[in-house]
Amino acid sequence: MARKGQKFQKYDSETKELVLKKYLEGYCSSLLEQEYGVPKTTIRTWAFNLKHHKNNKPGRPKSKNLTLEDYKERYEILKKYRAFLAARRGRK
Question: What pTM, to 2 d.p., does this model score?
Answer without folding.
Answer: 0.54
